[in-house]
UniProtKB/TrEMBL annotation:
Domain BTB, residue spans: 29-96
InterPro entries: BACK (IPR011705), BTB-kelch_protein (IPR017096), BTB/POZ_dom (IPR000210), Gal_Oxase/kelch_b-propeller (IPR011043), Kelch-typ_b-propeller (IPR015915), Kelch_1 (IPR006652), SKP1/BTB/POZ_sf (IPR011333)
Gene3D superfamilies (UniProt xref): 1.25.40.420, Kelch-type beta propeller, Potassium Channel Kv1.1, Chain A
Keywords: Kelch repeat, Repeat
Superkingdom of source: Eukaryota
Signal peptide: none
Pfam families registered for this protein in UniProt: BACK (PF07707), BTB (PF00651), Kelch_1 (PF01344), Kelch_KLHDC2_KLHL20_DRC7 (PF24681)
Name of the protein described by the UniProt record: BTB domain-containing protein
Length: 575
C-alpha cells in the first residue's frame, strides 16, 4: 500500500521561520550580496531555489558562481532587503511607497509571485494621479493584465484626467487606445476633441493626425469646434492651420457615426399629448425635455430624471410625429395637432447656446404624414415611410438629403399601406414592425425595405398583433426590442418581443409591469428605459407617468421612479 502525504501549513511556516532565523543570525551563510553600501549574508542554495535569475547567476554559467560575494546593481538596498526577506519567509508587505520599486526589482530577479502581488496591488489602487505611471510601468515590464486594467481605468475616468489637466502628460499610444475605444466615458464628443488639442499643444513634436482620426466630428457642431479651439488658446498660427487642415480632411470623408457607447447619453423628448408637472389638463406639449438615467451602487438602483429644456420651442406643437439624430442635430418631422397633419420639418440643436435659439426650419416633406416611420440611413439621409393623412393610409416612401435640403418621392412602396408601426434601420435595411392596416386592425408583420434595391419583403410575424408599439435597436447584437402597443380592441398591451435579425426569428420577452400604448423608449447599454404611454385608444384613457427598465442581460423588468411627465405620442431620441 502507498499513501501520499504532504506537509501541513504549520510545517511550512516552521521551515520559513527557521530560515529567517538562519538569515538573521548568519548561521550557515556561504554568500554575501553587496547592494550599494550594504552587505547581505545569505545562503547560496536558498537563493538558487528562489528564482531562475539567481539559479543562473550561481551556477557555472556565470563567473560569479565561485565567488563568496557578489555585487548587485540596479536596485536600492532597502528594496533588496524586502525581497530577500520574502525569499526566506514567503511573505511581503506592499504599500504605495515601495510597490513600484519592488515591481521593477522582482521582475528583474524573476520572482514571479511578487510580480503578481505587485500587479494586483497596483490594479486595486489605481487613481487619476498614478494611472499614467502605472500604465508606463506595465507597458515597460510587459505586464499585460495590469496594462489592460490601467487602460480600462483611464477609459472610465477620462473626464477626471481632463479636469485635472493630466491629459498633457499621457503617452501618445495610451491616448490613442483610450479615444479609439467606443466605451470611452465622456460627457460629449467635444471632450475627446478638447483632450487631443490639449495634448497636442504640449507635444508639438508628435503627429496629431492619427489622434484626430478617432474624433467623431459629426457629433460636434462647427460652432463648438471653434469655441474649443478658442478656449485652448493656441497662439501659433501654423499650429492652428495644421489642426484645421486635418479636421477638414476628416470631415470630407465622414460616414455615419453613432454616439460612443460610453458617452453620457441624453434622451430628448419632443411634443406629444399629456401633462407636465404644473398642468391640470392634458394638452399638446410645446416644450422639449431631456431625460437622463442615474445609477447608484450598493445596492444597484436606477433613477430617471426629466427636466425641461429652456429656450425657444417648436414652431408647431405636435404629436404622433418622429425624430431622428443626424450628427449633432435632431430632426423632428411630421405629426399632427388634432386638426392638421404636418409635412413640416424642424431642427433642434441641443448644443446651441446662441440667444437660446435651438430650433430652425428646413424643407418640408412632399407628403404630410402622421404615425409614420422615419430613420436616418447615414449622416446625410432620412427616409420617411407610410403613415396616414386623415383616413388616407399610405405606403409611399420619400427620402431627404440634408446636403441639398431636398425631399424626393421614391418610386418604391411598402408591401401594404400601414400606420402606427415601429421602425428601425440596420445595415442598409429599414425594418417596419406591426402597425395598423387599411382596415384599422393591428398586424403582426415584419417588413424589410432594402434601400439599395428598393425592394421590400415580409419576414417572420410577431407572436402578437400590435399597433402604436415602440421599438429600440441593439446594433451590436442585431436585435430589435418591441414593447406594448394596442390590440384589436384598442386596449394597451403588456407584452414585449425581440427580433433576432441574424435568424429572422421573434422571441417572447417577459411582459412589462404596465400596459402601454405609444410609450417613450430608449436604450443605454444593456438597459432599455420605458415610460409614459396610455392605457387604451379611448379618448379618456389614462396617460401614464410610470417608468420601468428592461435589463437585457438579466432578462428582467425593474420598476423605477415615476416621471414628472405624463405623455403619449411623443418622439424620444437618444443623443
Amino acid at each position: 500500500m502507498r499513501v501520499p502525504y504532504a506537509s501541513s501549513s504549520s510545517q511550512t511556516d516552521l521551515v520559513h521561520q527557521n530560515l529567517c532565523e538562519y538569515l538573521d543570525s548568519g548561521t550557515y551563510c556561504d554568500l554575501t550580496l553587496i547592494v550599494g553600501s550594504e552587505r547581505f549574508p545569505c545562503h547560496r542554495i536558498i537563493l538558487a531555489s528562489s528564482s531562475p535569475y539567481f539559479q543562473a547567476l550561481l551556477t557555472h554559467m556565470f563567473k560569479e558562481n565561485g565567488l563568496s560575494s557578489i555585487e548587485l546593481h540596479g536596485i536600492e538596498s532597502q528594496t533588496f532587503a524586502i525581497l530577500l526577506r520574502y525569499i526566506y519567509s514567503g511573505k511581503i508587505e506592499l504599500d504605495d511607497k515601495n510597490v513600484q520599486d519592488l515591481f521593477i526589482a522582482s521582475d528583474m530577479f524573476q520572482l514571479n509571485e511578487v510580480v503578481q502581488f505587485c500587479c494586483h496591488y497596483l490594479s486595486i489602487s489605481l487613481n487619476e494621479q498614478n494611472v499614467i505611471d502605472v500604465w508606463k510601468l506595465a507597458n515597460e515590464l510587459e505586464c499585460l493584465s495590469l496594462k489592460a486594467d490601467a487602460e480600462q481605468y483611464l477609459i472610465t475616468h477620462f473626464r477626471n484626467l481632463l479636469k485635472l489637466d493630466l491629459i498633457k502628460s499621457i503617452p501618445r499610444d495610451l491616448l490613442i487606445t483610450a479615444i479609439s475605444n467606443d466605451n470611452l466615458i465622456v460627457d460629449s464628443e467635444q471632450q475627446v476633441f478638447e483632450a487631443i488639442l490639449i495634448w497636442y499643444c504640449n507635444n508639438l513634436d508628435q503627429p496629431v493626425e492619427q489622434l484626430l482620426d478617432n474624433v467623431r466630428f459629426e457629433l460636434i457642431s462647427k460652432e463648438h469646434q471653434n469655441i474649443i479651439l478658442q478656449q485652448i488658446e493656441i497662439k501659433n498660427p501654423s499650429t492652428i492651420h495644421r489642426i484645421e487642415q486635418s479636421i477638414h480632411q476628416r470631415e470630407r470623408s465622414l460616414c455615419n457615426t453613432s454616439t460612443r457607447r460610453g458617452a453620457k447619453q441624453t434622451c430628448y423628448i419632443f411634443g406629444g399629448y399629456g401633462l407636465s408637472t404644473d398642468d391640470t389638463n392634458a394638452h399638446l406639449l410645446t416644450s422639449s425635455y431631456r431625460c437622463q438615467l442615474h445609477t447608484s451602487d450598493s445596492p444597484i438602483s436606477y433613477t430617471i430624471e426629466i427636466e425641461q429644456v429652456h429656450g425657444d420651442e417648436m414652431r408647431y406643437p405636435r404629436m404622433h410625429h418622429q425624430a431622428v439624430a443626424l450628427g449633432s442635430l435632431i430632426y423632428v418631422v411630421g405629426g399632427e395637432d388634432g386638426d392638421n397633419i404636418f409635412n413640416s420639418v424642424e431642427i433642434f440643436d441641443p448644443l446651441s447656446k446662441v440667444n437660446s435659439k435651438q430650433w430652425t426650419q428646413t424643407s418640408s416633406m412632399m407628403t404630410p404624414r402622421c404615425n409614420f416611420g422615419l430613420v436616418a440611413l447615414d449622416s446625410n439621409t432620412l427616409y420617411a415611410l407610410g403613415g396616414h393623412i386623415g383616413a388616407d393610409i399610405t405606403s409611399s416612401i420619400e427620402r431627404f438629403n440634408c446636403k441639398t435640403d431636398e425631399w424626393i418621392l421614391l418610386p418604391y412602396r411598402l408591401q401594404s399601406p400601414c400606420y402606427g408601426f415601429a421602425c428601425v434601420h440596420l445595415n442598409g435595411s429599414i425594418i417596419c414592425i406591426g402597425g395598423f392596416c387599411v382596415f384599422n386592425l393591428p398586424v403582426k408583420t415584419t417588413e424589410i425595405f432594402n434601400t439599395t434595391t428598393g425592394q421590400s419583403y415580409l419576414c417572420t410575424d410577431m407572436f402578437e398583433a400590435r399597433g402604436f408599439c415602440s421599438a429600440c435597436l441593439d446594433e451590436e447584437s442585431g436585435r430589435i426590442f418591441v414593447f406594448g402597443g394596442a390590440d384589436a380592441n384598442g386596449n394597451a398591451l403588456r407584452s414585449a418581443e425581440v427580433y433576432n435579425t441574424s435568424g429572422c426569428r421573434w422571441f417572447p420577452l417577459p411582459p412589462m409591469i404596465f400596459n402601454r400604448i405609444s410609450p417613450c423608449v430608449y436604450r443605454v447599454g444593456y438597459l432599455i428605459i420605458v415610460f409614459g404611454g396610455r392605457t387604451s385608444l379611448d379618448r379618456h384613457s389614462e396617460i401614464l407617468r410610470t417608468a420601468e427598465i428592461f435589463h437585457i442581460e438579466k432578462n428582467i423588468w425593474i420598476r423605477i421612479n415615476d416621471v414628472p411627465l405624463q405623455v403619449y405620442g411623443a418622439a424620444a431620441i437618444l443623443r
